[in-house]
Amino acid sequence: MRKLHVTAELNGEAVEFLCEPRQTLLEVLRDVLDHTGTKEGCATGDCGACSVLLDDRVVCSCLVLAPEVEGRKLQTVEGLADGDHLHPLQRKFLEHAALQCGICTPGFLVAAKALLDRNPDPSEAEVRYHLAGNLCRCTGYDKIVRAVLDAAAEMRG
Amino acid sequence: MSEGNGTGREFRVVGTRPIRHDGIDKVTGRARYGADIHLPGMLQGKVLRSPHAHARIVSIDVSEAAALAGVKAIVTGADLPEVRSSEEQSGESVTNARDLSANVLARDKVLYHGHAVAAVAATSAAVAEEALEKIRVEYEGLPPVLSVLDAMRDEAPILHPHLRTRGGEKSDRPTNVASVTVFERGDLEKGFAEAAEIVERTFDTAMVHQGYIEPHNAVAQVNPDGQATVWCSTQGSFEVRKLCAQILEMPLSRLRVVPAEIGGGFGGKTTIYLEPLAVMLAARSGHPVKLVMSRSDVLRATGPTSGSHIRMKMGATKGGRICAVDAWLAYEAGAFPGSPVMMGAMCLMGPFDVDHLRIRAYDVVVNRPKTAAYRAPGATNAAFASETVADELARRLGIDPFEFRLKNAAQEGTATAAGPKLRRVGCVELVEAARACAHAKAPLERTDGPRRRGRGFATGFWFNAGLQSSAVISLHPDGTASLVTGSPDIGGTRTSCAMIAAEELGLAALEVRPVVADTDSIGYTDVTGGSRVTMATGLAVYEAAQDVKRQLCERAARTWKVEPDQVRFEDGRVVPLTSGPEPLPLASLAKASAKTGGPIVGRATVNAQRANGPSFAGLLVDVEVDTETGRVDVTRCTVFQDAGRAIHPAYVEGQMQGGSAQGIGWALNEEYVYDEAGRLLNDGFLDYRMPVTLDLPMIEPVIIEVPNPGHPYGVRGVGEASIVPPPAAVANAIADATGVRMTTLPMSPPRVLAALREAGWRPSSSPQPSVA
C-alpha cells in the first residue's frame, strides 16, 4: 500500500514520517517514531494508557489515525520533563508512590498535565472526573489523585 | 547483627519511604516493557482463536495462509510435541504439562471461546492478521457447559473424556469434576446442637479477570544452534523457562528468559500463553518474532479467576462463639482442572477459630478459559460467603460485628482448616485497630430518602508463600552496591529488597542499585506471587548481606592482622573488638578490595518455606445504596492489614489500596458475561467494567505490624490479603443500609434492585420495609 507522508510537531521538534492510511497515531509513535513511552492497553479507547496531547487536548492515540496529525502539535510522556528537570507531576508521582507497575503512568501524567494546564487549582472531584478515562489496576487511584493535587499546589507556588 | 523478628531493633532504612529506583524510568516513558522490545529483522505474530466454546476440530488447512506474501511461519497444535500428563508444583499452583500444552494450542477440541488454534508470523501485523483469515478450520460443534452446577449434572456434556474425579468415589465414568477435597474436624452435629442461631445461605460469584493494563506479550529469538531467548512480561522468568521447556521438549539450558518490565500481573502472569508460540515461530522462520495480545485476547483466553457456587451453614452460641461450620464450595476451573477451590476452602474460615467444621471443595471444568492465579486465589469467593454469614449471625445475636470477630479471632495456636496451627498472627490486633479507628467511630448519617447509607466490615486471610529465591550483592569501589535478584518487580519490590541490603550494610537506600536479572544471570527464583518477594527474596537479600559483612570482617581482620572473630560489622563499618586501629568503613574496604583478596560479592539462596507468615486484612466501608436504581457507591473506605513489618510503607499501602480497589470492582461491577453458546460478550474494557477514579473514594490504609516470627525483620507478605474482604464488607454495608442480604456477585444495579424489590422495597414515596 502506498504510504502517506506526514509532518507534525512532536514534543517541540519537527518530525516527519511515512505511514499507511490505516495506521493509528499510537502505532506510528511506538513503531515508527520509536516513542514507546506511550502504551497500548486496549486499542479501543477505554483505558487511556495511550493518552497524548494533540494540540493541547488529551486524546487516545489508539483512536487517532496517524495521517490526521498532519501539521499539528503532539506531546507525549517523553516531552514532559525539561531536560534533567522532571515535571512537577512526574516528581509528585514518585514522591507519593503513585505508580506500581507503571504501565498506566505515562497516560495519567499526560492527562493530568492537560488538566493542570487548564485548571491550576482543581478539586479532588475535578481531578477524579478528568482522570476517569485512565485505568489503573494497581493503586486504587488514591495516591495518583493525591499526587496530582500536590503537584497542582506546588505549581501554584 | 539482629536476631529474631526485628522486635526492638532500631531501623535506619526500613520503614522510610525512599523514591523507587525504577521510578524515573517509569515517569519518563523510558522503562522497557515487553511490547517495547524491538529486534532487527523481527516479525509480528498473531494467534487464531476459536469462535466456539466447545467444538471438535475436524481439520485445519493453512495452505492459503502460508501462500500469502510476507507470511514466514505458521504453527498449529499438530506442531507441538505430545507431552505426557504430568503434574508438577510450579510456584504456588500445580501445572499439568499436557493440559498446559493443549491450552497453548488446541489439539482435537477447542474448549472455550478464544482458545488458541493456530499462530502466524509475518512481516507485519496487518499481514499476519490477513493470514489468520485465510486459515480454514472446520469445526464440529459440541454443546458447551458454562456453570459449575450444570457441569456437575449427570447428563452434562463432558470436556475431557479421560477425566476422573480425584479424591472422590472411585468410578470409571467420565466427569467434569476434577477433584473433591474435604476438610473435616470435630463433630458437626454436636457443634450445631450448641448453636443459638444458625444462618444458612447459598452464594454465587461471577468469573472475573485480573485486569492488568498491559496485555501479554513475548518476543523470541532462536539461534541456528537451538539456543533460544525469550523476552516477556512475566511474574516468573524461571517459571516461563520451565514450562516452555516442558511443552516444547527442549532442554532447560537452551532457553534464556529475560523478564521485561511488567505492566501488572496479579497472579495472571504466572503461566505461559504466547511464549512457546514465539519460540516455535522464531525457530521456523529464522527471525525474531514478537506476539502481543489484544485486550479481547486477554479477556477471552487468559487468567480469569473462578466463578463459584457456595453453600454455607454457620452456627453460633448465645455468647457469640462460632460453634459449627458446614460449607460446600464448587469453583469453575475453566477448560482444564486447577481452580483455586482448595485454597478457598483453606481460607474460608481463616480469620476464625472453629472447633467443628466440614468444608467440601469441588474443582469443576467448564467451557471457559483456564483460570489462573488472581491475588489470594480462591479466598475472596469464600470470604464473601463466610464473612457475610458471620456478620448476619452477629447481628441476629445482637453482638457488635467487631466484638463477634474478636470472640472468634484466629490467633497463635488456632488450627487452620487443613490442620497446621498458626504461629503468631495479627488478626486480633487488626480487628481491634479497625474498631478503634476514626472511620469506625465517625457517626454514619442515615437518611430516610431513596439513598440509604450503611457501614460494613469484613476480614480476610491469606497464607502467603515462601518458596525459593536467590540474591547477589556486589560492592563497588565507590562504596555503593548492586543487588541482583530474579524477582520481576510489579509493585516496588526492587526498592524494598534494596532497602533490606542498605539496612544491613549501612548504606542509603539509593546507594544500592537493584537489578532484576534473566534466568542465566541469577540463581533459581520462584514467581513474584504469593506475596512472597519482599519476604522471601528479601530474606535472600538479608542473607547475602550477611555474606558481604562476613567478607568485610575478613578483609579488615586481614588488614589489621588479627583473627576475623576479633572484629565485628557495625553501622556500615568494621570495628575491632579490642581497642586499637580506627574502624574501617565499608567504602574503604570496598575500594581496597583488590589488595585484600579481590572483589567483594555476597550471595545467598533460600527456600523460605519456614520463614513464611500469613497475613490478615480487613476492610471497613460506608456505602450509599440508591434504592430506586440499585446502584451502590462506596463513600468511605479504610483498609487494614498485618504487614508484619512494613519495609517501604508507601508501597505496602499501595498493595492494600490496590487490592481493595480490585475487590470493590469484584463486589460491584466486574463479571464475565457469556451468551448461551458460550461466547464471551464483554471482551473489552468498555463492558468489562473495572473501577475508574470516579467509582472509588480515597482508600485510607492502616498498617498493623505484628512481626512474623519466621523472618529476621518480621516481614509478612502484603500483596494479596487486601482483596479478600471487599465483596463481603460491601455486602455487609448494603445489609446495614437496607436490611437486604446480597448473595450474588457482582452486586450490580440490576441485582441489587431485584433483591430490594424482593424484600419489599418500592419506588420512592411508598412506605419502605424497616431495616433490621
Radius of gyration of chain A, rounded?
Answer: 15 Å
CATH architecture identity of the largest domain in chain B: 2-Layer Sandwich
CATH homologous superfamily descriptor of the largest domain in chain B: Aldehyde oxidase/xanthine dehydrogenase, molybdopterin binding domain
Tell me roughly what share of residues is in helical segments of chain A: 25-40%
Q: Helix tally of chain B?
A: 21
| Cα distance spanning the termini of chain B | 57 Å
Structural class of chain B: alpha+beta
Oligomer: heterodimer
Number of beta strands of chain B: 28
Numbering strands along the chain, what is their spatial order in the largest sheet of chain B?
Answer: 3-7-1-14-11-12-13
Domain module count of chain A: 2
Highest-level CATH class of the largest domain in chain A: Alpha Beta
Remind me, CATH topology of the largest domain in chain B?
Answer: Aldehyde Oxidoreductase, domain 4
Tell me what the structure shows:
- By secondary structure, chain A is of the alpha+beta class.
- Chain A has helices spanning 25-32, 88-95, 105-118, 124-130, 142-156; strands at 4-10, 13-19, 51-54, 57-60, 73-75.
- Chain A folds into two domains: 4-79, Beta-grasp domain (Ubiquitin-like (UB roll), Roll), CATH 3.10.20.30; 88-156, DNA polymerase, domain 1 (Orthogonal Bundle).
- Helix content of chain A is 33%, strand content 16%.
- Chain A has a five-stranded mixed beta sheet with strand order 2-1-5-3-4, with helices on both faces.
- Chain B has three domains: 23-31 and 465-610, Aldehyde oxidase/xanthine dehydrogenase, molybdopterin binding domain (Aldehyde Oxidoreductase, domain 4, 2-Layer Sandwich), CATH 3.30.365; 37-144 and 210-301, Aldehyde oxidase/xanthine dehydrogenase, a/b hammerhead (Aldehyde Oxidoreductase, domain 3); 308-457 and 613-758, Aldehyde Oxidoreductase, domain 4 (2-Layer Sandwich).
- Chain B is 27% helix and 24% strand.
- Chain B contains 21 helices and 28 strands.
- In chain B, a hairpin with a 5-residue loop joins strand 26 and strand 27 (632-642).
- The model of chain B has no long low-confidence stretch (mean pLDDT 96).
- The interface between A and B is large, with 58 and 57 residues.
